[in-house]
Amino acid sequence: MIKQNLKLFFKTKIIFIPVIILLVCFLGNLVYSCYSFSLNNDVLIYLKNSIKLCLLSFVILCFTSYEFFYLYKRCYIDEALYSHKNGKTRILTSTVTVLLFIPALEFFSAFVFNFVIFLSSGMNDYSYLYHIFSVLFLYVFLGGIIPILLGVFFAQKTKRIVSYALMALIIFLVSSTSDFIPGGLSQVTKINFWEAKYFLAYILPNDLEWYINHDYGMYAEIYRWNLIIFWISLLSFLFFKLCQIKKTALKAVLLSLTLLISTFNLVGYFYGGSHIEKGAQLDSISMSDYLFYTENEQKNQDPDFEVTSYDMDLSIYRQLDAEVSMTLSDTGLEYYNFTLYHGYNVLKITDIEGNALKYNREGDYVTVIGNGNLQLINIKYSGYSPILYSNYQACSLPGFFAYYPITGFYKITGDYTTYNPIEIKSETEFNIRVDSARQFYSNLDEVKNEKNCFVGVTSYPTLFSGFYKSNSSDIYKIYAITVKGWGLSKIDEEYIDEIQKYINELDNNSSNKLNLKEYTIIQTNEMLSSNCIYDGIFLGDDTVFINKATDEETKKQVAEILLAQRDMGYSKYVEKAVVDSESINDN
Amino acid sequence: MLILKNCTKSFKKTKALNDFSCEFKHGIYGLLGPNGSGKTTMMRCICGLLSPEKGSIECDCENIGYLPQQFGAMKSLTVYETMRYFATLKKIPKSNQDNEIRYCIDLVNLSDKIKNKVGSLSGGMVRRLGIAQAIMGNPEIVLFDEPTAGLDPEERVRFKSLLRKIKNDKTIIISTHIVSDVKSICDEIVIINEGRNVVQGTCSDITSIGNEKVFLLDEEYENNLEGNYYVKDRISKDNKNYIIVLSSNFIEQGVSINADIEDGYLCALKDI
Fold first, then answer.
1. Is Membrane a UniProt keyword of this protein (chain A) (predicted)?
2. All domains of chain B, ordered by start, with CATH?
3. What percent of chain B has pLDDT over 70?
């Protein structure tokens, strides 16, 4: 039947021509993007360009599917076809199968092109291939099934004019052209209508205007999979209802299964998880954080106790789920103040024996009330930051960010444009276990033969994963971003040697020489660079976040910044740098 | 063997089938009834396009050929390709498909059009193509819903001979409201009205319903008629006007004439 329907597909111009136009556009875009790649040498931009035409694909597949199924009605052949044993089921399934060739072809061609680009880029991180596969499969193939099933449903159930009106409405709501509706409604009613909009819009990759994070890749978080699978299974449920399946048991199984999958994924979608949420400007904090900090005052208060050791069990899949046990230096205090980013919801706080402790949560601040003899505090929390992400795709949790309870009260953002690295004054013992499918890296030592387990003493327990790999040598401990990107080169021993050479030339402090051998060197990702760390360089007590400079002058500047941060501390250096740049601008 | 037992099927408030029961054995059955009497609904129920709300349909075969009342085909396909499409749907083995297609196409006299696109065929030819697809694969039950609509007289004759050719060991049901179509070919006739089986019998059984109920009389006596009667026709002869009346009462002023199957059908339908 598939072969017969394929023949019918090729012979029916109203169906065939739009598909040819779509495929020509899709392939043309892939070929043209090769030219762009030759200029920017950015594999991720190429991947982004590959999914740029998903909306066009959605429109044409919706139209084609509708017309294909409506053809049987229009030609008055439907009754003659459906009167055969399982006729309707066979016709519907074979027609859907034929239509599925279109997104399959798009997916396959996009994957082949991206694979070739991957090979030509000289990258050796093969996990990126999986990323290509999953992003294309999600948006191009699975995303392409939704309009096909919509077309089937409308062709069977509604009149032509009503179908076209409904399809146009859906396309309008799915595309970004309807963004003004939730925007306007939210302003007028003060109710967040964006969630309703995303419920449709996230079936397309509609965040393509955002800049790319090369450690993160394209946005293909689990909740997006949930949403797309939810729509597919819901429409499949309707599809099976339309099919005249004679075996009632089989029909019941299919209907129950699709309903179950759709319910499961709907729950999954609303359960959410860590995802990136941009602000009004490229380098500003996320919109939700902006709104939060305009209404919630930030505090600064040094702690009057210390945590002598942290024992952290982290689970990072959809988001960060943590259980942190802190051994306290002072057992008899009335209050214990901590800073924990407000995106992490505290679930439970207990003492060493598991007794619940009273606590007070105000935004980023958690105050645990002492019981007279508190040796240990155990906090369970879960959540995420929209900028310092932690999910299955990638994780960017620098030690200067309150993703774990940091003693005392600190300001998380300085102005409303960046997150302030918290300068932690004392080193503490950390024992961190991360449960995740991905490989994690840290400035702490990895426990041998135990995946994602880290121990050591530090002020900044940094955790990160994603498109990172160890580029360490005998001399330096380096973690570099593996994905080739525009203006993004992998940092290596040679580069660090050059920076060290400049440091040696410029360093006047003979008693406290800055030697990069003693640091864990982490390549700064785009989010940290634009939203957290000034100039993308941060010098901690054992960690350096650094970007790759390409010319000698900039390399020298990197060395100067590192030395300035060592001498002045990070925050004072930033204050001075901001004043200096403003005075240059004034002049 | 096909048995319909107390089938009821409604569309909104209208009962298209109302407690309909009928039994079909091998042979050609004519399904007679006025427009909207439930003939098409009954056929759709038999071939599974509709499910009756009440009652049951018992059928000892799975292979049913069906020519719907409105049959069209994909204009972009040729006659042969359309038949191939149906042959695949009917799961006719690939090796037999070509022979089967050509045989059926030949039966409906479309062999010279086999390579023509369906879009270029006339309405009657498309109807014949519909007949061909219905009989392809040697189905045990064939349902024709107004098969002769749009066919020219020559093709009607050809259709009747086609039925005689394929009738062996088959149950063929022809739905029509044209009585003359069925009288020469049907073994049995089922008269359906308002979704009910009014009467079922052979042609002579149906004809006998009209026996001694058909009268020719002068038109001027029309106003004197009493009881349940139906004016079937008006004719003029020698400057005089006559009417043919079906009446359950004997009409003294008229002349009793021989009933035909149409008279029997009308008497059954009008309860005369």
1. yes
2. 2-202 (3.40.50.300), 207-270 (no CATH)
3. 100
